[in-house]
């Protein structure tokens, strides 16, 4: 990871709601990261975090622009997935 990419990641994660959204996406059922099986429906995020849909959408866009997640439409649903290589880097920097 170069310095510019690290700065983008830190900027994206500096907002408390974005950090909470990102951590919700990367946590599996047991609270641990599962590379392929880990995905999070945006509707679930909205219900869990009690943040409006436009706000969640904005935060997801910022996380995607920083290279932290990908989003994909599955029918009428939007699903967010973490990028495993970026999560490995971020995980080293976050407290337990």
From TrEMBL:
Taxonomically, the superkingdom here is: Bacteria
SMART domains to which the protein is assigned, alphabetical = HTH_ARSR
Give the matching CDD domains.
Answer: HTH_ARSR
The chain positions of domain HTH arsR-type read 1-96
Q: List, alphabetically, the InterPro entries matched.
A: ArsR-like_HTH (IPR011991), HTH_ArsR_DNA-bd_dom (IPR001845), Metal_resp_trans_reg (IPR051011), WH-like_DNA-bd_sf (IPR036388), WH_DNA-bd_sf (IPR036390)
Q: Which Pfam families does the entry link to?
A: HTH_5
Q: Which UniProt keywords apply?
A: DNA-binding, Transcription, Transcription regulation
Q: State what protein this is by name.
A: Winged helix-turn-helix transcriptional regulator
Q: Which organism is it from?
A: Oryzomonas japonica
């Amino acid at each position: 990871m170069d310095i510019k990419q690290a700065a983008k990641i830190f900027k994206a994660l500096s907002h408390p709601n974005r950090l909470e959204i990102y951590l919700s996406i990367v946590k599996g059922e047991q609270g641990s990261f599962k590379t392929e099986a880990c995905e999070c429906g945006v509707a679930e995020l909205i219900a869990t975090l009690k943040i409006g849909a436009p706000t969640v959408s904005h935060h997801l866009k910022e996380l995607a622009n920083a290279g932290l997640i990908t989003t994909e439409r599955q029918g009428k649903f939007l699903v967010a997935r973490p990028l495993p290589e970026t999560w490995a880097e971020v995980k080293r920097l976050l407290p337990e």
